[in-house]
């Protein structure tokens, strides 16, 4: 009897969360036009407790999306504009030497912008690798080590980074170790004509719609805990493992993988898919994830965790083609 009531309670919590999240999507949609997949995948990342990398050319609303989500999810937000001369202390903070009225000197820590719930790292690949690496510990462990002390970050803590495509001048590729710490890499593309028309009319008038808060930071933490309680069927677990393990080059693996990839995803990719499929199910008003969720999230989970070989790049092979072959192999 207890198990039945627990299951009923879980179902009720999932349905209530799904209704709240629908309101959150509607609130974001009043400000962001024609980026439904981008909004969905970013919300999935937040619900999964992860970080997201938004990739696209300037002017597609990446910064606006992050600001809007900060409002809708009720998170304390800070923004850092990454530039080539940005130093790690500009993000983490620094110790300053102060002297009191009696002449005694002591160091005082001035916290940097990373001490927030939602850090927007704008154009993250414009900063040097040294500065990019300053985020590594924070993104993985939710704490930073400064001046011999380890300081916890607020809860929840999410990094929403924007990146210009690598082909553009003045950018540095992100280290593989840092890329792996992003739950999803979300591609932001140009809006279609209808969305661009709606945006044009909505943003050039006397007043613009504003996003409204729907959740609080504490409610987001509770939602993240609920997501982890959602059951996942064996078929979905098998699909996740087959997809991730199949993306690693091996002699008996898929031909497209074996011939075109230099290296494939590690276990974090499977963990990311496990969480993200649950979050996607709840966003769609479903009570458990399906194989279709795995297929839908395969590309944003995998593409920044694998690399084409030199010969494949020379031949014009695209990662999306390799991932497409992987998806076809699991049906």
From TrEMBL:
Record keywords: ATP-binding, Hydrolase, Nucleotide-binding
Gene Ontology MF, one: ATP hydrolysis activity
Pfam families named among the record's database cross-references: AAA_3, AAA_lid_2
Domain called AAA+ ATPase: residue spans: 48-192
Uppermost EC category: hydrolase
Superkingdom of source: Bacteria
Catalytic activity, EC: 3.6.3.-
Protein name, as recorded: MoxR-like ATPase
